[in-house]
Design goal:
Blueprint lengths: L1 H18 L8 E10 L13 E8 L3 E16 L2 E12 L5 E12 L3 H10 L5 E9 L1 E2 L8 E10 L2 E10 L1
Antiparallel strand pairs: 1-2, 1-9, 2-3, 3-4, 4-5, 5-6, 5-7, 6-8, 8-9
Length: 169
Amino acid sequence: MRALLVGVAAVLATAVATIGPAGASTALTLDGSFNTVTVKPQYVPQCPHGIECGSIELSGFGTADWVYVFGPTFDPIGHCFNVDGTITFTLRSDGSELSGPLTGVFCPGPSGTAQEQSGTISYGNPFHEDDTITFTTGTGQFAGLTGSAVFHTFSAGARARGTLAGTLH
């Protein structure tokens, strides 16, 4: 009986050594979305000039606030523009943060003149932006994790929608 227990203990010790630290090879999926509607008489800009921000529901984590600080890149490519910046997501539940550089393509609505004129009487023309984020820094629940995600935002009038999909390791 003793030989059997020693054998089982050796097998278990080998299995534990092979597995390694918990979560070392576990991938964490980021899946989030937002959908907001703003009523014009109540509209107050949330973010200072040069910053875009909002909140997003992250599956498994709850609500997170995001802040996208525009970088210097705004290079035209046809009707759209290459863009860059830095984005940070902060969980409301515990303040955990996840951030990193962002690059993407911003595509505005009609010409600049039309957009300037309509912006004074409405929320402006539609736009969409497709970005790739390389997460390099995390705190709290995201400490030590890195990865990438695709962040898509779309706005038309008073409605704004967005999605975030990616993986952290």
